[in-house]
């Protein structure tokens, strides 16, 4: 299963790389990383060879004459340039006495001191772009010039300052770029042991020294690129990456200028003998190329570049290999995946950096409390001791209030992060939302006697039933009843045989449980107030209950006789 997941991850990474780069070989910067100067002329050379000033020669060249001496350097017919670097002896002609002009349009280039390198002052001009064929360097007096470099990219672009990872190690870039920030990748080929089948004015290690300039030179003190011998019919260059890596892409800086098809067409890149990519002539466009390996991406320790002999010779050269830098970028420890944007899980056993840089699988398994190959899932909160099966997360038995194969769910009566909170009186057998404890809105939501989102609020006096939607009967004492059933104790004048106290006493009874009869002297057929028993009395009965007769005195004037009667 793990191999299947790993294969899927590699396939995904390969497709992602294809989408990211957009093509097999990607151009990084519009312009050249190589010195545009390819020839120079002057009638004022008194010491040295004029070609030294553009081939990073063996010594400086001195120019002198009775009038203003100068030297013209050719960068190509109508070429644009953005950067010029002039190297002068530290104890030579002062910088302020040197004039540099783009000769086609007579634009004078204002130089500033940029750095001191190997006892030489480096003056910089950057701007434009200017279009010209010749650049003239001159002075009012004799002067010495050690080197001139002209680029059609800015110096920051040449130094690759804006790339968090791909910085040019050329000494001229020191101090120009800030320290790399947030680079999550590492070039595992940098300064590693390299070898080649043969060498022509170079050493195999130059292709992994971090200097991405692409000017090939005859000066051994300035060598930066590798070149196998022209008579080597089985050329190769190889770097030992130190350990096995899955190689998705290789960045190659080819030699600048010349004929790129002759320099790089037919190169085959392998990793431990497994094919990454063969470069055909259609793909040779840029001086810096990202070569995307075939799918599946090869895995291994030794990256090798070969160029097979096919019997053909271009421009009197055999199948030599001429490269300036080879980079193999992989994720730094602690990061993995396409673009190295994913961090190894904190659940990895040991150091957090101990995960596979391709798929994030933890090298030493998971710490207690984590599972899956990447140890990115936490064991259920209800697992005893916090431990679970590191493959599928299952555990048993669960702690109280927890349930499920992974003990990662609260049981039906509890909720919260730790399942410690009891659900309220929800209508559905106390089942509530496992996160916030709210009861489902089932209309009604709550069991009789309760209301609120969590059904944990008792009905207020005078209310009862589900969600407390019903009102207690007016016959209930103090208008209060049982919040669940609605039953209550009846007021005077109501029949207690009805538990809801909804039935009043009949017309001839009143009081507690209608236990008393209205007075016989009540008018309207012995009808009285159901609560107090009061009524309007007939003649001869005593209010307010009309239940007792009274004596009446009547004088008979004829007989003067008092008669008493009830």
Automatic annotation (TrEMBL):
Domain EGF-like: 428-456
Keyword Calcium belongs to the record: yes
GO molecular function: metal ion binding; scavenger receptor activity
Keyword Disulfide bond tagged: yes
Key words, A-Z: Calcium, Disulfide bond, EGF-like domain, Metal-binding, Signal
Coiled coil: none
Positions of disulphide bridges: 446-455
Pfam families, alphabetized: F5_F8_type_C_2 (PF22633)
Domain of life: Eukaryota
PROSITE patterns with a match to the protein in the record: EGF_2, EGF_3, EGF_LAM_1
Signal peptide: 1-25
Protein name: Fucolectin-related molecule
């Amino acid at each position: 299963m793990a191999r299947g997941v790993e294969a899927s991850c590699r396939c995904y990474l390969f497709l992602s790389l294809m989408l990211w780069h957009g093509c097999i070989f990607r151009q990084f910067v519009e312009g050249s990383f190589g010195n545009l100067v390819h020839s120079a002329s002057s009638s004022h050379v008194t010491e040295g060879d004029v070609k030294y000033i553009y081939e990073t020669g063996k010594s400086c060249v001195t120019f002198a004459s009775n009038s203003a001496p100068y030297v013209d350097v050719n960068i190509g017919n109508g070429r644009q340039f953005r950067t010029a670097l002039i190297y002068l002896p530290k104890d030579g002609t002062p910088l302020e006495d040197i004039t540099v002009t783009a000769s086609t349009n007579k634009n004078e280039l204002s130089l500033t001191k940029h750095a001191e390198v190997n006892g030489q002052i480096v003056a910089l001009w950057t701007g434009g772009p200017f279009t010209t064929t010749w650049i003239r360097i001159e002075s009012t007096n004799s002067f010495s010039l050690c080197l001139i470099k002209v680029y059609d990219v800015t110096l920051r672009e040449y130094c690759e300052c804006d790339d968090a990872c791909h910085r040019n190690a050329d000494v001229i870039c020191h101090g120009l770029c800030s320290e790399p920030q947030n680079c999550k990748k590492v070039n595992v080929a940098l300064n590693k042991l390299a070898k080649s089948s043969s060498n022509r004015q170079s050493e195999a290690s130059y292709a992994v020294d971090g200097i991405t300039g692409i000017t090939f030179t005859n000066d051994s003190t300035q060598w930066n690129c590798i070149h196998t011998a022209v008579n080597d019919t089985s050329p190769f260059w190889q770097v030992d990456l130190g350990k096995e890596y899955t190689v998705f892409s290789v960045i190659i800086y080819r030699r600048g200028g010349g004929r790129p098809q002759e320099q790089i067409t037919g190169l085959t890149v392998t990793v431990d003998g497994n094919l990454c990519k063969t470069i055909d002539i259609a793909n040779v466009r840029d001086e810096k190329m990202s070569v995307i390996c075939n799918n599946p991406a090869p895995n291994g320790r030794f990256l090798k570049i070969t160029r097979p002999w096919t019997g053909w010779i271009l421009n009197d050269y055999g199948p030599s290999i001429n490269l300036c830098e080879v980079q193999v970028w992989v994720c730094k420890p602690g990061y993995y995946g396409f673009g190295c944007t994913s961090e190894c899980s904190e659940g990895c056993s040991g150091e957090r950096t101990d995960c596979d840089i391709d798929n994030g699988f933890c090298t030493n398994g998971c710490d207690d409390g984590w599972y899956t190959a990447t140890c990115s899932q936490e064991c259920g909160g209800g697992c005893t001791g916090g431990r679970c099966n590191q493959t599928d997360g299952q555990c048993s038995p669960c702690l109280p209030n927890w349930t499920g194969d992974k003990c990662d769910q609260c049981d039906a009566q509890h909720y919260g992060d730790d399942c410690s909170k009891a659900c309220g009186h929800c209508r559905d057998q106390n089942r509530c939302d496992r996160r916030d404890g709210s009861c489902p809105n089932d209309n009604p939501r709550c069991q009789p006697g309760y209301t609120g989102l969590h059904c944990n609020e008792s009905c207020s006096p005078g209310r009862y039933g589900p969600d407390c939607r019903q009102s207690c009967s007016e016959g209930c004492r103090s208008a209060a009843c049982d919040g669940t059933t609605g039953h209550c104790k009846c007021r005077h004048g109501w029949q207690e045989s009805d538990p809801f106290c909804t039935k009043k006493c009949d017309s001839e009874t009143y009081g507690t449980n209608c236990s008393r009869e209205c007075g016989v002297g009540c008018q309207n057929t012995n009808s009285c107030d159901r609560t107090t028993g009061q009524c309007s009395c007939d003649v001869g009965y005593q209010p307010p209950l009309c239940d007792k007769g009274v004596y009446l005195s009547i004088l008979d004037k004829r007989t003067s006789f008092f008669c008493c009667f009830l």
